[in-house]
Request: fold
Amino acid sequence: MNLEEDYLIERFLKGELSEDEKEQMETRMVSDPEFSEKVALERQLFKTFDEEDWSDIENPDKEVEAYAELFGAQESKTIKSAIASSAATYKRGKTKTLRKPVWLYAAAATIILVLSFYFLWPAGIAPEELYHTYLDKTELPSLVTRGDSAPDQMKAQAYFENQEYREAVQLFADLIENGGQSGAFYIYLSLAQAELGEFSEALATLDKLIQSDLLDSEKGYWYKSLVYLKADQPQDAKSLLELIIEKNYYQQLLAESLLDEL
Reply:
């Protein structure tokens, strides 16, 4: 990723782009999956570690104190070692051309890996953690097709991928109200509603999909089970997963795996 593109993403994440620049950015994110992945990675690092938070990173002991209390000695030692090692590597070969020190990203990636392992494999995984884990394993439908694609569809998907869920809800609801016959609209709408904590609305949206005659209607059961997890209703999720397995519905194998974890 060149420096100009790097700077553009940083301005985007900081909300410094003009409306025209923002719209061009969102359109590119939809049409260029590789660029969209770069933005997603930058967003995760941007949200987790900004430069001010790392102002005194040269003292790894201080940076790891909070993790030590929460995760225990062994995990903390791993984090501390990653920070110190990455910082030392950076100091030996730093240049003035980098927007952010490379060692910061290396340390950040290591910490994220350590914390992900900790959260994904403890006894009694929280329902919301399972929601995110299994949603990541599910390939969401794309609203971008070869050739021309409806601008509102592309914009709605960009809103969702950029975590602008309120805007996504409004636009997907408009698409459905205006006669949009796509199961993907209902899926994205329900997930955006769930991210906003509007669980009753999300479940109602998926019920409409399930009761429709759309080809994707069967997918509503799987996404409804995930919304139940997001809403911290694991028993309802279990019942629905059992139905998916019994009827051999969409994502049966994932449903079996998820049911085992519950």
About this structure: The longest helix spans residues 73-93.
